[in-house]
Amino acid sequence: MLLIIISFISVVISLYATFIYAPSEVIMGEIQRIFYFHMGTVWVASVAFTIVFISSIMFLVNGKRKWDILSLSAAEIGVVFITLTIVTGSIWAKPVWGTWWTWDPQLTTTFILWILYIVYLIIRSVAGDNMKQAKFAAVYSIIAFIDLPIVYISARLKRGISPVVFGPGGGGIEREMLITMMITLIACTLFFIILLRERINLEKMRDDLKLIKSRIRQ
Amino acid sequence: MNTIISIISKDILSEFRSKDMFVSMFTFSLIIIFLFNLVMDMSSELKNIVSPAVLWITFLFSGTIGLSRSFALEKESDAIRGLLLAPVDRSLIYLGKFTSNLIFLLAMEIITIPIFIILFNYEFDQKFLNILLITFLGTAGFVTVGTLFAAMSLNTRLREVLLPILYFPVIIPVLLNSVRITSSLLNGNTLADNSASLQVLIAFDIIFLAAGVLLYEYIIEES
Q1: Do residues A183 and A14 touch, judged by C-beta distance below 8 A?
Q2: Which residues contact B78 (CB under 8 A, 6 or more apart)?
Q3: Is the dihedral of CA B56, B61, B66, B67 positive or negative?
């Protein structure tokens, strides 16, 4: 409950910072404000898919149901957030680049990431019983995760236009903008933790329900 | 090593007797390449960019048929159970199936390439020896994950339908790099000019061969 309250407050602060506190960008103008939320969602999606990767390995190593539940829950939330990333990115790109979509390395990788984890969810729904579904999904998510850097490198061999905000070649960033971005990242992360916890509980309840049903049948 | 060789010889022998996988795979590749050639205008200056894509899409589509057929054969009379009961390491079974799939796909591709040269009006020259090398590397990339996913998809409710859905997004790096190198070779560049793409291609093959060796047992146990 406490977590929900903190998360709610941080989301409100993040909205305030995004729309009022942060200065307007000189070249891109107001549309740049969508960027904070865009970064937040892509951050959450990356965290989620890293969790899927690690918990899939853990599942294959020791076969415990809790790891499977964790990877399923994180994957579902990750797909939602990466969808938001693509949508917000497109809305941002149209006025700035003049196009909704282009095959630049980051966009290519994001698109493939999106498809890969949708396929992951498809596997979970068609693979039949629990054990098989869990193993197939785990194997697929490991392959998918290793695949992504190679996709990025391959796409990189062509030139890219996505902005590199940090690191070499990246331009500087205003202090207010940096603070706004940090607040948004924290807000999104807290929201993600709540969603993840709820999703795990839901899956545990389903397990309990199954158990109770099978007992009644006997 | 003996295990791998016996799996390969078993696969080749059964294919020699029935020939249905090879015939269907090759006919399919022929149809695709004809269709592309028919519907596209190949006289333009874009030819060297478009035709490699056609070639690799053809390899990919007909390869998928071969991969899924090769595992379906194991399932048909429950032959896979026999393989699993044999007291050998599961990773050796993977390597055996990988090699035989690679041989089948390469056989199909080696016959497809001359047809490609004729239809798209190229010369039979030195370039195509290099393209053969790229074909080998690219196909090895296809087969590393393809062997794994064929076993996976045939064990689900969707069966063959699932294979392309699983498989195509993952092998996109292979497709991108193979097409890029082939296109560059057709434009008269050398292999050395494409060293970056070549390295990525080889890295993909090695990484996913290792991943297949490690992960195959989790898939095959659930057959």
Answers
A1: yes
A2: none
A3: positive
User: Distance between alpha carbon A31 and the CA centroid of its chain, in Å?
Assistant: 22
Bigger pLDDT: B18 or B171?
B171
A130-156 vs B127-153: helix axis angle to the nearest 10? 160
Q: Is the dihedral of CA A140, A146, A149, A151 positive or negative?
A: negative
Interchain CB distance below 8 Å, A136 and B180: no
CB A38 within 8 A of CB A96: no
Q: What is d(CA A17, CA A11) in angstroms, rounded to the nearest whole number? A: 10
DSSP H or E segment with residue A74: helix A65-97
A155: Cα separation from own chain's centroid: 21
Question: What's the pTM?
Answer: 0.90
User: A29: which strand partners?
Assistant: A25
Measure A116 CA to nearest chain B CA, in Å.
Answer: 6
CB distance B204 to B176 below 8 Å: no
Q: Which candidate from A123, A140, A154 shows the least CB-CB separation from B200?
A: A154
Q: Is B197 in Cβ contact with A127 (below 8 Å)?
A: no
Per the document, the length of chain B is 223
> How many Cβ atoms sit within 10 Å of the Cβ of residue B170?
29
**pLDDT, tens only, B42-87:** 777 788 888 999 999 999 999 999 998 888 888 887 888 888 888 8
Contact B222 A126 (CB under 8 A): no
Q: What is the ipTM of this complex?
A: 0.91
Who among A116, A132, A150 is closest to B222 (CB)?
A132
- Give the residue from chain A lying closest to B210, CA to CA: A143
Render pLDDT for B147-203 as a digit per residue (tens, 0 to 9).
999 999 888 888 888 999 999 999 999 999 999 999 999 988 888 888 889 999 999
Question: Nearest by CB to A157, which of B180, B207, B222?
Answer: B180
Is B166 within 8 Å of A123 when comparing Cβ atoms?
A: yes
3-state secondary structure (DSSP) of residue B134: helix
DSSP secondary structure code for residue A169 in this structure: T
For residue A172, give the DSSP letter: P
